[in-house]
Structures are given as C-alpha cells and as structure tokens.
Amino acid sequence: MSLGAVLGVAAAAIHLSAYAVYARQTSRGETRLNTATWILWVFLSALNATSYLMMSGDPAKAAVACAGATACTITLAYALARGKASPIAAWDGAALAAGLAAAAAWWIWRSAASANLILQAGFVVSMVPTYRAIFKDPRTEKPLPWLMWGSAYAVTLAVVLLRWRGHAADLAYPGINLVTHSGVGWCVILLSRARRGN
Description:
Keywords: Membrane, Transmembrane, Transmembrane helix. The chain is mainly alpha-helical. The chain has one domain. The protein is built from eight helices and no strands. The mean pLDDT is about 90.
C-alpha cells in the first residue's frame, strides 16, 4: 500500500473519530448541532463525495469525502432523533441553492469538476450559520471535533499533493474545508478566552 493510500485511510479515520466525538458531545448537551448547516452538509457531502471521486479518479483522495458523507448523515439523524439540534434560520437557503446549482451543473455539463467546485462554494456558505452561532455564543460548539476535522482535511491535502496529477481543482475540497473547519475550532477557543477575559 502506498503512502498516499495509508494517509487516505488515516484521514478517513480521523474524520470519523471527529464525528464520534461530536455525537458524544451532542448527546451530553455540550454542543447543539446547527440544523441548517448539517442538513446542507448531508446534501452537499453526498454530492461532493460522488463528484470528488469522479473528478479525482482516486479513492485515496476521496476517502474523507466518502466517510464524511456517511457519518454526516448518521450524526444529523442521531441529533434530530434525540432533540439535540437547533432551529433553522431563514437565511440558510443560499447554501441549499448552491448545492442545487452544483447538482444542475453536473447534470447539464456532465462535469464532475464543475459540480465539485460549485459545491465548495456551497460548503463555505453552509458554514455561515455555525460561525454566526459561535460569534453570538462560543459555548454552542466545542473546538475538539472541528480541529480534528481540520486535521483530517490537512492529511487529505497531503494525499492530494503526494498523488499529484496536475489537477489544481483537486486542492479545493480539502483546502477549503481545512480552513473552514479548523476556523470554527480556533474561533471557539479565541472567542471563549476573550469572553472570559471581559
């Protein structure tokens, strides 16, 4: 097994472990899943996993995307069943529209690359409800799973670079999600410290 394949499996394991940590925190009431973000992620992550695998043609690069799509669906279903999810805000339709545009782009142009790149915009927009929530109250999230997800995306980025085929679009999914997921973790840490200092 190549180093890239080993790292792909490691990234998927870190990613799935973060979901387990998040589900545990949710069940204990330590965090409240942002329903709008997570519903969008279920939709976007399923499209992303499929389009990223088709675009990259490399299961090692797509391991995190495929594992994440499955775990995201299970985590949302668990939180909804246990009543551990927040209400949905009206503004969050923009991310859903981006996801639908990606599906349409894929259907119209039959281009996994076009769909995947549009999906990355959907992922960025889908993070807005979570960022809004933590800026209002950083206690709504815990940093550990977010930093773990960021680590998984960093390892995935390393896999893409190790298995480089000259497709810059392969960098978008892990790069954008590295920044957005790690960003939640670091914002929670920094905002919590700032509030304790006041």
